[in-house]
Amino acid sequence: MVSKKIVVVGHFGVGKTSLIRRFVEDSFSDDYKVTIGVHILKKTLNVNDQDVSLILWDTEGTDDIEEIRKAYLMGTHGFVLVCDLTREATYINLESQKKYLEENFPKTPILSIGNKTDLLPKGSIADAKDQFDYLDALVSAKEGNNVLRAFEKLTKMIIK
Questions:
Q1: By the 8 A CB rule, do 17 and 37 touch?
Q2: Tens of pLDDT along 94-138?
Q3: Torsions phi, psi of 51, nearest 5?
């Protein structure tokens, strides 16, 4: 079995912890607790007939990705860049954040995720498809929609 470090980054309150908890434990809590520093969880996926142990680093939220401690980012095999689809401030600079990661960690896959689809009005995702076409996945950590699929996609990008 191979182990791969995945670092989850994004603004405060976008649902990074909830996303990881949904993926690892298949649970959700409405209790909001701020992550200070980093919290590490682990989950094994079987992708392409290979067991892959994902070491998930849940980082504290920050408006500026360059403020994240470099030590958290070093040795990363993949990034999950999360935004909140209901808060424009969390996705307006997503492309520049992604560019920063690409420049500083070339060859490291990045999956851009829009979270909280459950809070959007029914049918609005189809209407706003062009607005969110730069995202690799739209998910709901609360309802679990597309969470597993997103992590499987990133894992396939890593082990290809």
A1: no
A2: 888 999 999 999 999 999 999 999 998 877 766 666 677 889 999
A3: -80, 130
pTM over 0.85: yes
Class (C level, CATH) for 2-159: alpha beta
For residue 148, how many other CB atoms are within 10 A of its CB?
A: 15
**Which of 108, 101, 113 is CA-nearest to residue 157?**
108
Residue 55 one-letter amino acid:
I
Q: Please give the full DSSP string across 93-119, using - where no structure is assigned.
A: THHHHHHHHHHHSTT--EEEEEE-GGG
Helix axes 16-25, 147-159, angle to 10 degrees: 90
- Check pLDDT > 70 for residue 66: no
Q: What is the CB neighbour count within 10 angstroms for residue 50?
A: 11
Tens digits of residue pLDDT in 26-60: 999 887 777 777 889 999 999 999 999 999 999 88
Helix H or strand E encompassing 53: strand 50-59
Domain coordinates in residue numbering, the chain: 2-159
